């Protein structure tokens, strides 16, 4: 299992220069990917813009959206932007898409929340067609377009993985929850007659340091997932706050068949990244390789 790290772009108040320096350091290792998340009505950076900036200061790590809320985007424009980032990065874009769960983002974009599933299915077919036909430039590194992941827990979501995507991305939680979702993704893949198996991605959240840092991280998760009601407290309780917890979390995901685990910070401090890098190296996981 490979291990990536997220940018702190979903945390309100994150400084732009921190984002750039974070990306530079991630590329130096020991991580395999750099992740971003998407919201519209929140204090975060726009994810595709961030990955374009990251492409300019990195050379080897994958640049992943986990996820972009697909139905909020015009199909042709999304295809063009994704192709541009893929070309600028030398084929390192991994485009994760899902419907998103927050109605307020759809209201702000003027998009009907009730049609989001249908819109995403149509979007996936359009993206593949535009990339494969080559009707938009620049050309992507692969003829079929960037590596495409789909998120979500519905049966329709797993069907989209099998029909249009290269793999599935899970939104987080304990390894057992990922294992159940991974089984459904593999089953849908098999039922569709796809060769091989889907790529399986997942994510978690961390805050490393003293009690104040841990509480700041938990506060962020409670706020970010406030729309889930009382469940937000359970998400905050799953925050990874020690090397031992991170090692156990990674081991559980690896045993469940995860290919890439992206660990997201909940505190916008470069020291968080440095501590995570030290932990991974201590566990013998260093993905400081080149893509050549």
By CATH, the architecture is named Alpha-Beta Barrel
CATH superfamily: Luciferase-like domain
Task: Give the proportion of residues in helices.
Answer: 40-55%
**CATH level 1 class label:** Alpha Beta
Using the alpha-carbon principal axes, give the shape: globular
CATH topology: TIM Barrel
Strand content: 15-25%
Describe this structure in words.
Helix 6 crosses helix 7 (175-191). Strands 1-2-3-4-5-6-7-8 form an 8-stranded parallel beta barrel, surrounded by 7 helices. It is an alpha/beta fold. The protein is built from 11 helices and 8 strands. It has helices at 16-27, 47-57, 75-88, 103-109, 116-133, 155-164, 175-191, 211-224, 231-237, 243-255, 270-282; strands at residues 2-6, 33-36, 62-69, 93-98, 147-151, 167-169, 199-206, 260-265. The chain has one domain (3-282): Luciferase-like domain (TIM Barrel), CATH 3.20.20. Helix content is 47%, strand content 15%.
Give a quick rundown of the structure.
This protein has about 290 residues and is an alpha/beta fold. Helix content is about 45%, strand content about 15%. The chain has eleven helices and eight strands.
Task: Give a topology summary.
Elements lengths: L1 E5 L9 H12 L5 E4 L10 H11 L4 E8 L5 H14 L4 E6 L4 H7 L6 H18 L13 E5 L3 H10 L2 E3 L5 H17 L7 E8 L4 H14 L6 H7 L5 H13 L4 E6 L4 H13 L10
Helix pairs in contact: 1-2, 2-3, 3-5, 5-6, 6-7, 8-9
Task: Throw out a few tags for this protein.
292 residues; alpha/beta; TIM Barrel; eight-stranded parallel beta barrel; 11 helices; 8 strands; 47% helix
């Amino acid at each position: 299992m490979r291990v990536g790290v997220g940018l702190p772009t979903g945390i309100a108040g994150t400084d732009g220069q921190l984002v750039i320096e974070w990306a530079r350091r991630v590329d130096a290792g020991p991580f395999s990917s750099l992740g971003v998340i998407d919201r519209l009505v929140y204090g975060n950076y726009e994810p595709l813009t961030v990955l374009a900036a990251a492409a300019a200061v990195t050379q080897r790590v994958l640049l992943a959206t986990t996820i972009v809320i697909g139905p909020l985007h015009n199909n042709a424009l999304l295809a063009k932007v994704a192709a541009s980032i893929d070309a600028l990065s030398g084929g390192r874009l991994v485009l994760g898409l899902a419907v998103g769960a927050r109605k307020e983002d759809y209201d702000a974009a003027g998009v009907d929340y009730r049609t989001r599933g249908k819109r995403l299915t149509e979007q996936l077919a359009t993206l593949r067609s535009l990339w494969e036909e080559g009707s938009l430039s620049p050309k992507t590194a692969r003829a079929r377009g960037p590596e495409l992941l789909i998120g979500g827990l519905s049966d329709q979501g797993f069907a989209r993985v099998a029909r249009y995507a290269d793999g599935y991305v899970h939104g987080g939680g304990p390894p057992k929850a990922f294992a159940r979702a991974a089984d459904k993704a593999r089953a849908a893949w098999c039922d569709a007659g796809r060769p091989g198996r889907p790529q399986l991605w997942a994510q978690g959240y961390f805050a490393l340091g003293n009690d104040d840092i841990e509480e700041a991280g938990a506060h962020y998760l409670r706020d970010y997932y406030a729309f889930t009601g009382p469940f937000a407290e359970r998400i905050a309780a799953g925050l990874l706050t020690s090397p031992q917890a991170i090692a156990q979390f990674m081991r559980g995901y690896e045993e469940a068949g995860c290919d890439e685990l992206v660990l997201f910070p909940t505190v916008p401090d470069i020291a968080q990244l440095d501590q995570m890098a030290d932990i991974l190296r201590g566990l013998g996981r260093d993905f400081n390789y080149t893509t050549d």
